[in-house]
Amino acid sequence: MTKSNIGTVVITGTSTGIGRAIALKLTEQGYRVFAGVRTEKDAESLKQAASGNLTPIIMDITKAEKIKSASEFVSLAIGDEGLFALINNAYSGFDGPLECIPIDDIRWNFEVNVIGQIAVTQAFLPMLRKAKGRIINISAVCGRFSIPYRSLLSTSKIAIEAITDSLRMELRSSGIEVLSILPEGIITPEQADKVEADCQKVLANMSPEMKAIYGNNFRVCMEESVKGNRTTGLPVEKVTAAILEALEARKPKRQYFVVQSPWEWKLYALYKRLVPHQYFYDNLFKD
Questions:
Q1: E strand or H helix at 56, and its extent?
Q2: What separation in angstroms does the CA of 121 have from each of 25, 69, 260?
Q3: Distance from C-alpha of 152 to C-alpha of 142, rounded to nearest angstrom
Q4: What would the pLDDT profile of 105-128 be if each residue is shown by its tens digit?
Q5: Does 229 map to a domain?
């Protein structure tokens, strides 16, 4: 793809973190970006930071009327040009032992991370079909295997991987490419703050019995996660580079792993597949 025919991209969840970085990077590269945010404050902040053609759109992906309004706005703006890409990035997370997570939080997790993604995709598909565009779903490496205390993240990303695979086959006749980006821990300080606060909240709400069972191991796992989001994870530029590659490739890959060591992750996945299930988890996740 050349600069002369760079198209329009819609991105969800651009208020902070990866989504914001993607939106700003793509405007720098000459894309016309419609950036989904939930508040006017976030919209103004994003617009002030942008150096190119960026239009914030208020879009709560859990509300059908907000999705409809946003899709109609974009459709009117782009006309017959169609939509070159939809990047499904919006995410809501709850960490903790599954036994301790309230059912309402679990329902909300799936409402945002799975159902909301499908709803947005359905709304923008007619525009994508016009341009023979592509759908990029932001997944995670735990979309390939589950990890303790992040069962909802793992489950929702595994669901996204399944949805991505199904859509890829269903939309082939429409000329629409469907792929996923699977990053490991990314340096995003605001996410570190959230994980840390959520961890403290979960621990505070645990009964003495639950603390005896999970407390120490959960705390250690979350400390590692926070550390990754603060200092040891990948720079967010690695994710934006992968997305640019996926946007500009004539034939994009099915999955883009954004990890410190690609060969290590491939070996890791092979190890999980070949050794007995219990041996794998006993050696990976020790108490």
A1: strand 54-58
A2: 22, 14, 30
A3: 10
A4: 999 999 999 999 999 999 999 999
A5: no
C-alpha dist (Å) from residue 104 to 32, 42, 92, 109, 199: 37, 26, 13, 9, 18
Does residue 272 fall inside a structural domain?
A: no
Q: What is the DSSP letter of 101?
A: S
CATH number at residue 126: 3.40.50.720
Are the C-beta atoms of residues 196 and 226 closer than 8 Å to each other? Answer: yes
The token duo for 222 is 């979350």
37: Cβ–Cβ under 8 A, 6 or more apart, which residues? Answer: 14, 15, 43, 46, 56, 57, 58, 59
What pTM value is reported for the model? Answer: 0.90
Q: For the segment 220-254, what is each residue's pLDDT rounded down to a tens digit?
A: 888 888 787 787 778 889 999 999 999 999 999 99
153 in helix, strand or coil? helix
